[in-house]
Amino acid sequence: MLIVMDAHATAEQIARVCDEIRQMGYQPHPMPGPTRTAIGVTGNEGAIVQTSRISSLPGVIDIVRITKPYKLVSREFKEADTIVRVGDLPIGGPGVVVMAGPCTVESRDQLFASARAVLAHGATVIRGGAYKPRSSPYSFQGLGEAGLRLLAELRQELGVPVVTEVLDTETLPLVEEYADILQIGARNMQNYSLLRAVGRSHRPVLLKRGFAATLQDLLLAAEYILVEGNRQVILCERGVRSFDQHSRFMLDLGAIPVLKALTHLPVIVDPSHAAGQADRVIPMARAAVAAGADGLIVEVHPDPAFAVCDGEQALVPHRFAEMMQQIERIAAALGRPVLGRSPQPTHPA
Amino acid sequence: MLIVMDAHATAEQIARVCDEIRQMGYQPHPMPGPTRTAIGVTGNEGAIVQTSRISSLPGVIDIVRITKPYKLVSREFKEADTIVRVGDLPIGGPGVVVMAGPCTVESRDQLFASARAVLAHGATVIRGGAYKPRSSPYSFQGLGEAGLRLLAELRQELGVPVVTEVLDTETLPLVEEYADILQIGARNMQNYSLLRAVGRSHRPVLLKRGFAATLQDLLLAAEYILVEGNRQVILCERGVRSFDQHSRFMLDLGAIPVLKALTHLPVIVDPSHAAGQADRVIPMARAAVAAGADGLIVEVHPDPAFAVCDGEQALVPHRFAEMMQQIERIAAALGRPVLGRSPQPTHPA
Amino acid sequence: MLIVMDAHATAEQIARVCDEIRQMGYQPHPMPGPTRTAIGVTGNEGAIVQTSRISSLPGVIDIVRITKPYKLVSREFKEADTIVRVGDLPIGGPGVVVMAGPCTVESRDQLFASARAVLAHGATVIRGGAYKPRSSPYSFQGLGEAGLRLLAELRQELGVPVVTEVLDTETLPLVEEYADILQIGARNMQNYSLLRAVGRSHRPVLLKRGFAATLQDLLLAAEYILVEGNRQVILCERGVRSFDQHSRFMLDLGAIPVLKALTHLPVIVDPSHAAGQADRVIPMARAAVAAGADGLIVEVHPDPAFAVCDGEQALVPHRFAEMMQQIERIAAALGRPVLGRSPQPTHPA
Amino acid sequence: MLIVMDAHATAEQIARVCDEIRQMGYQPHPMPGPTRTAIGVTGNEGAIVQTSRISSLPGVIDIVRITKPYKLVSREFKEADTIVRVGDLPIGGPGVVVMAGPCTVESRDQLFASARAVLAHGATVIRGGAYKPRSSPYSFQGLGEAGLRLLAELRQELGVPVVTEVLDTETLPLVEEYADILQIGARNMQNYSLLRAVGRSHRPVLLKRGFAATLQDLLLAAEYILVEGNRQVILCERGVRSFDQHSRFMLDLGAIPVLKALTHLPVIVDPSHAAGQADRVIPMARAAVAAGADGLIVEVHPDPAFAVCDGEQALVPHRFAEMMQQIERIAAALGRPVLGRSPQPTHPA
Fold this sequence. Notes:
Four copies of one chain form a homotetramer. The first copy, chain A, is of the alpha/beta class.
């Protein structure tokens, strides 16, 4: 932490700030400069400093925090990549993982048709919403438990893990029973009660970045989960709000190398929600893999025109097949296999 | 709804879109223009149209939605202002209401000292957090039920209503028992399970706008509450994320006249969280009242330097007293009294 | 400046950074903490430090700049408010100044009708565009020199100063000849050649904030003007781009107290462009004055329906009259007169 | 264009709007719905409709524009991709073009060393700034004409085209004489005098997107150039302002497929300015190519620690070599060669 003093601060004011820092149990390091004095503070790593005690003192004009407020999720705490294991599927290792399926579970036929189509082309996790968070109370809210049961059936029949969203702590026990990965949606990224609850689950968690969450917010949300004991967290970039509404959201692919440097957790990308239109999903899926994502989560529907939700952005199966071919080549260019598709890397990284 | 066809769309493509619209139960109105045809759609008011059935047809390049997706909260549905009554305090009428108190309930002394100070200068509702949503799991999370009990004591002893945040459905019954107004924080604005739950409460709800929520998102969140039966909702602008971090959040006062035109619900402003620093709170409180806000919710602490949370932005009591004098004059300039302070308007509007 | 070292940085790496700092002519102040070392740098005030020499050294993970990059515009450099004088009109003193008139000069009749109407209600500067920056090359681009001549005629006949936009250095001599205040529009806020050129002018400059300019960008743009010798600069907040398009731009009134603290230059607000609709202009004008703005610049048109540009946001004269009455009462509540209208403050501040 | 009437609009109000539309020379198409009437307007394609004449009529609550305001740049106007030719280098065809070199021309040695290094690895255009737009007037502003002469020397000696920024119309003749491609920087994207001037040049123009420019703003800026006769325009995405400052700018790669659908002009990406740090440039360069960019413009410096400007984001030559290898593999995965490096595509698209 660094305290910046006013250019006109007096020696007494500086001394008083140093005293206060000492009383709080830290070390002050005054650094007089030609126009002003700054005071470094050490000893506060990992503590939440009550900065208001200092900012309220006369002569203080700014306080600059340096310590990152998260710990368990940081690379400094754990250097090696975390590999989240779903059955025998490793997420966060050298292989790229593709999760795919419909936005919403609508019926047994629709779910199984989507799932069979995407599995045929290399998806290794099936996605499908049973409880849907919708901006409007008048929109379809999902099949609920019936949807979960269809997912469970699918899992058993096809032997594939499923990821589905959990909306609240009430339905968490049910979702936990049926799903292999618990998805926390963008709107719930700072629903701390829910984060703590999934932090006590034995299921891996897929945590989506909020519409306007900074990467620090995202990492702190993940910290809420890890601090409760669950270390199996996958981060997901899915686009943020911006001033230009050319697409539904602005996909922030620059977040990938930044997150990979800050945290050991796997990072995947949802290109469907940001694109908002199917013809933009494939280029963004390619770009995500090229930027270093550990995986994708993509919406696929056998008949998007009749999807009850977000049909515009769902790929039809043959377009999904094209996407898989393309990202396999992109991943290979980086020396990474696409799991379920290309067991061996074709180029060294 | 309006369907925009490609400049090169054929007559057959246009006819097929019209057919599809008719099959969905609506009326198509093709409008041929010199370079392209647009097709108006009527009969869809209030329905969630499955636009993917149309957007997937050849020749369609854009679909423009016109109908607002909310109903109960809209001025078109109910023209007269909703006045939310908390005891005999009317929120949303001609009087401006000021809610004030500490960010967080820390102790009996701190709570009562803050409350007595703000009541002396015209606050009519006491605010204070018992459950605190914090970005970091390591920050103080509030006193919980002990904090609620202190609020209840305060309410009984001083005869003043209290507003406090409810974080989840688990603690809602407890908060409902102790609080006069249930606050939904910015991070929970799209926590639909919680919105539905407070929609079934008999307590008024103070709904804060999310960091990156559009006004339409905010109104839809309110719609979730009204649709469950609770019509006593107060909206609160509290600042949004922006590219310039000169303040903690960018207070969007332009939202006030827009909301007042779109909805009949009362609109108040929290200038403390956006300002982030006490010396900016008063100008923003004045501006909020000048822009037409129905009230303010402001953080006041007897000793901000020692506040456990957000001390930088809390006003000390004598600064709060100045604020009240200033906003009383501003409100009077608009012909509005500040409730609890100035019973009669001094200027006609 | 503060250099943050990696938690695993070695003593040698720290020593090398200190050496580099000394070689660059500054003083290093290493501060070892429990988990990492930070190194304060002094002696660099006012200099542009070549931080790449340090950031490229092993073990350095972050560099935090503290010194503000602007000087002449800062309150630390000049504590007293700058009062820009246009004839005998003081801008930036206790009085609030209102500049008003049409978006664009369309004809002698339209200009004189607008001007007479706004002068009757207390405007003290007439605005009107002769050269218009338009997003589309197909939109009306202004009358050019003919517009300037009409403004000059108006100035002479009615004895009122005029403000008009200068778009480029080629037309600057012409605009300078006819206008009392040179306006730099939002799109040109970082057109440094133009900023330098008006910095060598003897005319006051009204500098509008760019759509996505931080306050630091705005102050640096003003610094470009002051550094060339022209100290008569008025800053203007006019709304920024945001994710919510409920209004044309998001008016950032929180910028006012922040700017007033950082700089001695006057700060005015343009509520018309941000509002985009006439019925939102008055609440925002009131809020701007309540927040502490030194003035307003407002679009008024005798017949907005037939305005060639931005008619939606222009006030008709009788609405402008209402606005003036309202802001006079707001200003009075703060102890400020509206110049040209209310010579004495009615309440002490 | 579509006029939305209030739910309570009367038949007379609707008739009056239709009359006004007819008087303006267009056709009204009223569409009565169950709760409100909308009125389609045809005949206005390509015209700038004076919407204020309609919006000011009673009963009108919204006007929705549908026609795109640009023409010459649109795919509807010209379906085939524009290929900009610089000497015999085609930009916008199947090949990916890499422009590279230092941010700023500092000296003959630095420029030639950078250029030789990047040419050795496949760059086909050399970049280098002679006139630099800098946020601070105290930052190095470039070598000016001396820098241009060094670029000209380089061009002649090494036989490679150069791209450099033009800041204003005064220096345009000089820059035009020395440079092969005229760069318009982000800050000047809406400097219409400059856009018109380069629109009359015979040199190709590289137009960078403004920090907060929508894609529509960018396309309208390009339209300003095309309308003057210069059809050789290359668009460049370089990152926009966002609420999260994890990187210098947020690179909007989702803009690439959207732009490629809307316009026939080539689209390239500058990953250096957005990344702000060298180690993030390569992943973003890969992602840009994967998303479908026609080229890259990248900063390379032989000794970034001593760069006078933006050293943090410059690649050293051997890292540039790695980048070229990687993007060649990515481009090949899409069936595209990197010009100057890989003459034949290795995979069919």
